[in-house]
Structures are given as structure tokens and as C-alpha cells.
Amino acid sequence: MKQKKFIRNATPYFFITPWIIGFLVFTIGPLILSLGMSFFDWPLTSDPVFKGFGNYTEMFTKDTQFWKSLTISLKYAAIFVPLNMAIALFLAMLITQPVNGVKIYRTIFYIPAVISGVAVSIIWGWILNGDYGVLNYLLSLLGITGPRWLVDPAWALFAVILASAFGVGTMMLIFYTDIKNIPIDLYEASSLDGASPAKQFFCITLPIITPTILFNLITSVISSFQQVTLVMLLTGGGPLKSTYFYGLYTYNNAFKHHKLGYASANAWVMFIIILILTALIFKSSSTWVFYETEAKNGKKKKGGKK
Amino acid sequence: MKMSMKSKVIIYTLLTAVAVYFLAPFIYMFFTAFKTEAEAIAYPPRLFPSKWLFENFKNAWQSQPFGTYLKNSIIITVMTTAGQIISCSLVAYGFARFEFKGKNLLFMILLSTMMIPWDVTMIPQYMEFNLFGWINTLKPLIVPAWFGSAYYIFLMRQFLMGVPKDFEEAARIDGANAFQIYWKIFMPILKPSLILVGVLNMITVWNDYLGPLIFLHDRSKYTLALGLATFKGIHSTRIIPMLCITIIMIIPPIIIFIIAQKYIVEGTSGSIK
Predict the structure, then answer these.
(1) What is the pLDDT of residue B12?
(2) SS3 for A61?
(3) How do residues B158-167 score in pLDDT, each as one tens digit?
(4) Which of B1, B22, B77 to mutate to test the interface with A (most CBs of A within 10 A)?
(5) What is the dihedral of CA B209, B211, B217, B219, to 10 degrees?
(6) Separation CA B40–CA A129 (nearest Å)
(7) Which of A15, B127, B191, B240, by CA, is between 20 and 30 Å from B265?
(8) What is the spatial distance between Cα A182 and Cα A205, in angstroms, rounded to a whole number?
(9) Rounded to the nearest 5°, which phi and psi values hold at A130?
(10) If pLDDT is split at 50, 70 and 90, which confidence band does A305 have?
(11) Which stretch of DSSP H or E encloses residue A186?
(12) Conformational region of residue A304, where left means phi above 0, alpha means psi within -120 to 50, and beta covers everything else
């Protein structure tokens, strides 16, 4: 009898064991190791040397590239995140319109997001080419002389933003499914009261999807700090390091310059910045995010399967 | 809701404009892949090739051991997808259908791991795999997937939370044990969720560049994404093979997405609250 009880108690742990092992071996273990490494001078080829907070002080006081890369990543996040979210929301509204054939458009809008990474950077590197790129040709038809996107420091960051906006589909889809779940009678009732579509958007749609906006905001802030592949292949961090993103800087310190300890310190600073930003967003969210549970006494509860 | 003719026209115009923006690069790339190198960089550009050079694809494919790259990509994609489906469903089932000590704490930890940037763990993971002797093998790209990903576990757990309690109770009365219930009852119910996770994982892994870049050194171990990236830099003027391989590489994820899009659209809803 006792044995049976033990089995019953142990069963749930048996099911979650894969994750626990994975967490210990591939997440928490490396996380602790990484924190430890950040206090060492750790070249790949010879033995590590302890240097206390040396990596951190060097980063903050001597390494100008650290500040430059951090600024570039912050700038990228500040432009890219709101822009991308606005586009995603706009497209999501567009594909929720009750017109024929809208499903085909939905598919088309999502496809670029499916081929992320190398393929996207190749396609955009070719389109944005200053000599034969088709974008500048199209601009010239309008009488505009396009910039040499990828070799002009003034435009390279913008070029990266343009290319990364190609992957807006995922976020669009998250907005889309949320908007789809809003009960239609809310709109019908407000239509009878004479509310315009714009008013409906700002007074019904937008407040209801604020939790999703929060989710998208946090995930895209995190992912914009981790943007590496696209810049690596599109501009390689150049020209004149104008797109030398923080993620690329960390990567190069580790795997190009083999300064593993220093790069670990870079990564931890990034982690802490992400934590602070996320905490700030969460903190501010209580003033602008509206949860359905708070309004249970109001109209019919938001439908949809959970 | 009824719509006026005018607003319909506006909506179709907007939809079409965005569709053109998203599709035009692909269409233009497709036609260019059949051109000669000189025609591809001719200015002003023309959309259609003057002569359709189908052999461009064959030449591009043979310019590097792309057959091997393809094989490696397929191995990694299939093996990680199998791993994710099995381990994530086990863990999600554990979290969704049982009460146990420390459950909430463990689940909070699981959720918070989604916030750790990969950059932080990437360096020590490299050292770890180096210690295991796994560098320059496909193992670092496959094995972790067999221990589940927080996001996919979360997705499946949300799905399982919605299944009524009676499902397993009836089976338990019939004498089924927890594992049998998982395998015979919950796996079939989970099917849409399994497909969603499978497709998301396939697309992510297929396109992954940074992982292979860090862990693989020999060309014989390269994946398609890595092989494609080698066109950048060394021969920046050889656009044709680069575009041919890009087209070949993007076809599988597009086909998979179109087949499974119903699950992606449905699965996305409710997965984030």
C-alpha cells in the first residue's frame, strides 16, 4: 500500500523530468557557469585567470564599443518595436475585415515570417544593393535617388529595420487571433449607438487586446536585443560599425576574439538590461493593460477557447 | 456586418498593396534565378529572363556539397521535432493534469526561463558541449530539444488545461495507469497542439543559422542555412547560385506552413494568456 502511494506521488515528477534535467543541464548550469566566467579572463586557448569585476569595469570605463553597441541596440529597439507593433496591428485589423478572399491575404502576409534568417537577409541584401538593387531602381522611377543602403552609415540601420519588418507576420497572427475572439455583439451594439469604426477601434478593440499588446511588447523588446543573424549577414555590423548590434558585439567577443569571460560579462549586462526593461514594462502595464477578469461584472465575457 | 462599396474598395486596395510588398521580392527573385549572371545585375533591371536557364539550379546545387547540407538539415529538423513533441507533451501533461508539491514554483521557473536571452547561455553551452566532445557534431543541435522548450511546453499545457477532468477519471476506473492515459487518451486529444509545435519547431530549426554556425566547423556537417550563408562574402557577385539555393531552401517551410496553417492560426489563439 505504501509503495502504491509512493508511485502515485512520484508520477507527476516522472512526467516533468525531461524538463527538469534540461533546465539543470542546458539552462541553470550554463547560467551559473556564465556568471562565474564573467569574473575571469577566459581565453579559449589557455587557462582562465580570475580578475574580479575587471571585465565589468573595463566594459563600462574603457570599452567605447560597448557603449556604441548598446546605443545602437537601444535605438533599434526604440524604432523597431513600436513600428513593428503598429504594422502588425494594422495588418491584423486588415485581415479581420469581412471581405472575400481575406484568407489568401492572411497566408501571403505570414509567409515572409516563415522563411526568417539567412534567406531573408540574402533576399534583402540583394534588393538593397546600391549598384543593381531593385529598390533603388523603383525609387528612381519616382525620381528619387536611393541611398546606398548597406554601405551608407546613415542608412544601414534603417535598412536592417526594413528587412526585419519582413517578419511581422508572427505578431500579426497573435493580434489577429485575439481580435477574432472579441464577441461581435460588442460592435453591433455600439454601431446601433452610432459609434464610428475609428471610435470602435479605440474604445472596444484596443482596450480588449491590451494584454496581447503587453505580450508582444515584451517578446519583441527581448528579440530585438538578440537580433544577430540578420545584421551579421546583411551588413556584418558595418558600415563603420553603424549596425554593430549588441548581440553581434557579444558574439564576436566570444567566438571571433575568443574572449569568453569578457563576452559572458557582456551577455550578463544584456540580461540585466532586459530584466530591467521588462520590469518597467510590467510596472507600467497596470495603468494601461485591461484584464477581462477585472470587468467580469460588465458585458458578456470575452469568448473563445482557452 | 454590412460594408459599403467604398470601404470594400479601400480594404482591397490596402490588402493588395501589402500583398505586393510581401510577394514582389519572391516573384522577382524567382525570375532572376533563371537569368545569366550579367543579366541579373544589369541596370535598369528587367523582370523576365531573356532566356530561361533551368540549369542554373543544377549548377548552384553542385557548386557545393548541398546534398550533404540538405541531409544534415533534414536530420536535425526531424530529430528535434520528434524530441520536442515527445518531451514537451510529457511535461505539459505533468503540469496540466496533476497536483504536486512545488508545482507552481516549478511552473513559474519554467515561464521565466523564456526571458533568458540565448546569448547568456550560448557561451557556457559551447564550453559544455566542447567538454562532452560534441562540437562539430550534430548533437548540440539535436539533444537539447529532447528536454523540451519552455514556450512549447507552455503552449501544450494551455491546451491540456481546457480538457475536462472526466476524461482521465473514466480511464482510471478501467485500471489504466498515468502513462497509458497520457499515451492513449491525451496524445490523440493533443494532436492539433502537437502539429502546431511540430510545425513551429520545424520552421525555426530549418532556418536556424547561429546554432550551426557556432557548433559546426566542417563543411560535411553544414546545414542548408549555413551553406547558403557562405555565398555571402566570398563571391558577393555570384548572385545566381545564391538565389537558386535561397529558393530551394524556402520552399519546404512554405509548403509546411500552407498545409498546417489552420493549426497555426488556431493554436496561436489563447496561447498567451
Answers:
(1) 94
(2) helix
(3) 888 888 888 7
(4) B22
(5) -40
(6) 12
(7) A15
(8) 8
(9) -70, -25
(10) very low
(11) helix A184-192
(12) left
Number of CB atoms found within 10 A of residue A78's CB: 12
Quick one: which of A194, A94, A86, A105 has its CA closest to B10? A94
Which residues of chain A make contact with B162, given a CB cutoff of 8 A?
305-306
Q: What is the mean pLDDT of residues A73-101?
A: 93
Give the CA distances from residue B19 to residues A126, B23, B263, in Å, rounded to whole numbers and listed in that order. Answer: 20, 6, 22
What are B38-86's pLDDT values in tens digits? 888 887 888 899 889 999 999 999 999 999 999 999 999 999 999 999 9
Nearest to B222 by CA among B77, B75, B78, B68: B68
In whole angstroms, give the CA distance from residue A214 to residue A277. 12
**CA–CA distance, A306 with A171 (Å, rounded to integer):** 19
Nearest CA in chain A to B3: A98
For residue A29, is pLDDT > 50?
A: yes
Phi-psi category of residue A182: left, alpha or beta, with phi > 0 → left and psi -120 to 50 → alpha: beta
Helix A29-37, helix B118-132: angle, nearest 10: 100
List strand residue ranges (DSSP E) for chain A, in order: 40-41, 49-50
Q: Which phi and psi angles does A281 have, rounded to 5°?
A: -65, -45
Closest CA to B182 of B192, B172, B174, B173: B172
Q: Which three cell numbers stand for residue B136?
A: 562539430
Q: How many CB pairs under 8 A join A and B?
A: 257
Q: What is the pLDDT of residues A177-217, one digit of tens each?
A: 889 888 888 888 888 888 888 888 998 899 888 988 998 99
Contacts of B254 in chain A (CB under 8 A): 111, 114-115
C-alpha cell at B224: 542548408
- Backbone φ and ψ of A50, nearest 5°: -70, 135
Amino acid, single-letter form, for residue A199: K
The residue among A4, A7, A11, A19 with the most chain B CBs within 10 A of its CB, best to mutate, is A19
Q: Cβ–Cβ of A30/B128 closer than 8 Å?
A: yes
Whether residue B117 and residue A98 make contact (CB cut-off 8 A), yes or no, is no
Q: Verify whether the Cβ–Cβ distance A188 to B1 is below 8 Å.
A: yes
CB-based contact, A259 to chain B, within 8 Å: no
| Cβ-defined contact of B119 to A306 (cutoff 8 Å) | no
Block residue for cell numbers 550578463: A268
Q: Is A64 on the interface with B (CB under 8 A)?
A: no
Phi then psi dihedrals of residue A40, to 5 deg:
-120, 155
Q: Are B63 and B234 in contact (CB under 8 A)?
A: no
Q: How far does A227 lie from chain B, in Å, by closest CA?
A: 10
**Cα(A30)–Cα(B126) distance, integer angstroms:** 9
